[in-house]
């Protein structure tokens, strides 16, 4: 029987109030709230109606994160207190893996709703669900009688279709990365795994059937249609027959926002539609609110197996969202490990890699901080920030500020870590800050940035090692894309030639032949490495053996980086059979080992990296 509780707060365990801590104030005000073992992100406001936002998982979660931050800010400015949270097994949630059934996600949604009512005093709720989150929002609303509005943004209407599309996207991702698709009972996409039992439950979801079988009883519904998947006419008819005021509008730029738009955010028009609808829904209910039940505390934390995590505001202004991970029972030993964003991916990392590694480091005795740079994930942009923030000086300056603020506050050395653009950032921060004792860089495609090059050009023109081009020729998927005109043949041929030249010619000659206008950058790279050597800063460069990072290494230091042998503080490590994003689980374990070795070395000999010997090989 459906449980529609008259008082959703009864029996919730939060009758005495929930712990709240302010991360930042102002136009992007954000508090963190204890959700009974997990963390909620509360955009504070006072009003009779609150909003609970249900996000998604895996790649879609990365794409949606900045959009949901922007939406939370906009709803709060309109007088609607708003709660965001991570589904169990997603991003910063305490669960290490996704659950085996939807019930865990539904219970988490219910807790988020209960806590929002407690801390804000609102009496009624609006549920906003995006993509897969709409499934959870629907099932959660069916258990309550305090939900007056239901917004479904690009919702999963038929679970079977969602699973089929996600499985297809996963195969394409692995094919593009040159990796075999994992063979497990469930869904593997972007380094994250959904168990087969949960997949089966989602496959059985049908939005229209849910409504016809006694779905949420709400007065107002908004459906934002994704292109090619308009709202089911029977669903709309059934909702209206039940007395609901139903608004159907397009979800503008849906594909870029939820599939290819990491860092894009929601179009202003779409945010406006949701906020206007939510505000008008709020205007239809009694304006009375309950006395808020919250406890202002200095610390809101999550405890797990061998770790304690605490959301924090980092940087001298304290406006950037971060998570401090410590060993259970103490602050840890040795340096602080700082994990940088990759591209526009939020602080959890591709496939939750930074979450997994931070918790693994804590179990080994080391503390860490993962955080979002301005304009990424849960950190708002700064007024003076550029439109293109990846590889920007703006991000380098912000990262240096975070590193030095942490080092001063805790009196510790810092180890900086990054993948791809995050590796570039780690190197540049190490050059500019003496607080950095070591850097661990995975697949560094640039040591310095050519101001004449755009980020789009760097991605498009990235050359892989020649062995990778030869290996891809024999793959059927490559033939299909070639025949279909989806491969830029001229760029591929040009990059293959670059790869061959860089592989057989002395690095200085290759740099002149291939980049005759970039001698200044070449000298800058050598000056930077010399500076780090004199400081005793350890630099560990970990590259996939077929990654484009090997070309960057050869360009400046000869094939395989052989000229770096003259730098005793530089250590080179190769990893076989890996994509640029370090996706396979076995590679994640290798990444953790590399970072742990460096953190242990700095802990044993702070600022004494000159005595360490070079190390190489394949792992």
Structure, explained:
α1 links the parallel β4 (49-54) and β5. α1 packs across α8 (254-260), α1 (58-77) packs across α9 (268-282) and α11 (393-410) packs across α12. The protein is α/β, with parallel strands linked by helices.
- Beta-strand residue percentage: 15-25%
Helix content: 25-40%
* Total of DSSP H or I helical runs spanning 4+ residues: 20
Question: How would you sum up the major sheet?
Answer: 10 strands, mixed
Number of strands: 21
Q: Estimate the global geometry from the Cα principal axes.
A: globular
Mean pLDDT: 87
Cα radius of gyration in angstroms? 25 Å
SS content category: alpha/beta
Uncertain segments: 1-13, 463-487, 496-512, 608-619
Question: How are the strands of the largest sheet arranged?
Answer: 11-10-7-6-4-5-3-2-1-12
- Ends distance: 54 Å
């Amino acid at each position: 029987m459906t449980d529609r509780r008259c008082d959703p707060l009864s029996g919730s365990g939060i009758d005495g109030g929930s712990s709240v801590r302010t991360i930042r104030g102002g136009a992007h005000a954000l508090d963190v709230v204890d959700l009974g073992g997990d963390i909620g992100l509360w955009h504070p406001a006072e009003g009779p109606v609150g909003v609970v936002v249900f996000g998604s998982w895996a790649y879609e979660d990365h794409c949606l994160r900045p959009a949901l931050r922007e939406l939370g800010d906009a709803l709060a400015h309109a007088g609607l207190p708003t709660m965001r949270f991570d589904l169990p097994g997603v991003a910063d949630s305490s669960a290490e893996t996704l659950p085996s059934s939807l019930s865990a996600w539904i219970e988490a949604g219910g807790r988020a709703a209960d806590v929002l009512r407690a801390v804000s005093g609102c009496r009624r709720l609006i549920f906003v669900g995006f993509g897969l989150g709409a499934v959870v929002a629907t099932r959660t609303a069916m258990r309550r009688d305090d939900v007056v509005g239901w917004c479904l943004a690009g919702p999963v209407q038929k679970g079977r279709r969602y699973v089929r599309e996600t499985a297809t996207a996963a195969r394409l991702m692995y094919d593009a990365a040159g990796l075999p698709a994992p063979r497990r009972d469930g869904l593997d996409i972007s380094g994250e795994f959904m168990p087969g039992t949960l997949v089966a439950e989602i496959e059985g979801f049908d939005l229209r059937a849910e409504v016809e079988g006694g779905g949420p009883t709400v007065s107002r519904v908004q459906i934002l249609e994704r292109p090619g998947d308009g709202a089911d006419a029977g669903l709309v008819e059934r909702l209206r027959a039940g007395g609901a005021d139903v608004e159907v509008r397009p979800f503008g730029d849906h594909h870029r926002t939820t599939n290819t738009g990491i860092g894009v955010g929601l179009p202003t028009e779409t945010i406006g539609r949701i906020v206007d609808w939510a505000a008008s829904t709020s205007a239809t209910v009694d304006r009375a609110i309950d006395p808020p039940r919250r406890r202002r505390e200095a610390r809101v934390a999550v405890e797990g197996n061998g770790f304690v995590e605490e959301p924090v505001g980092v940087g001298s202004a304290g406006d950037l969202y971060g998570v401090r991970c410590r060993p259970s029972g103490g602050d840890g030993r040795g340096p602080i490990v700082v994990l940088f964003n990759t591209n526009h991916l939020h602080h959890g990392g591709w496939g939750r890699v930074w979450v997994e590694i931070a918790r693994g480091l804590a179990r080994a005795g080391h503390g860490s901080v993962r955080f979002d740079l301005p304009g990424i994930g849960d950190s708002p942009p700064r007024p003076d920030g550029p439109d293109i923030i990846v590889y920007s000086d703006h991000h380098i300056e912000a990262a240096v500020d975070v590193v030095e603020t942490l080092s001063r506050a805790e009196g510790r050395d810092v180890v900086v870590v990054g993948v791809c653009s995050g590796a570039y950032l780690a190197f540049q921060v190490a050059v500019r800050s003496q607080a950095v004792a070591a850097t661990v860089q995975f697949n560094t495609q640039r040591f310095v940035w050519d101001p004449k090059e755009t980020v789009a050009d760097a991605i498009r023109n990235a050359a892989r090692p020649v062995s990778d081009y030869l290996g891809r020729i024999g793959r059927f998927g490559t033939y299909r894309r070639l025949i279909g005109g989806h491969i830029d043949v001229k760029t591929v041929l040009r990059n293959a030639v670059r790869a061959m030249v860089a592989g057989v010619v002395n690095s200085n000659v290759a740099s002149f032949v291939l980049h005759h206008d970039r001698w200044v950058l070449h000298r800058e790279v050598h000056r930077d490495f010399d500076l780090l050597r004199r400081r005793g800063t350890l630099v560990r460069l970990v590259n996939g053996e077929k990654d484009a990072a090997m070309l960057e290494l050869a360009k400046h230091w000869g094939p395989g980086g052989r000229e770096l042998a003259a730098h005793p503080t530089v250590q080179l490590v190769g990893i076989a059979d890996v994509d640029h994003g370090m996706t396979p689980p076995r590679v994640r374990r290798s990444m953790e080992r590399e970072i742990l070795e460096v953190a242990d070395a700095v802990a044993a000999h702070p600022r004494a990296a000159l005595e360490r010997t070079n190390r190489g090989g394949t792992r």
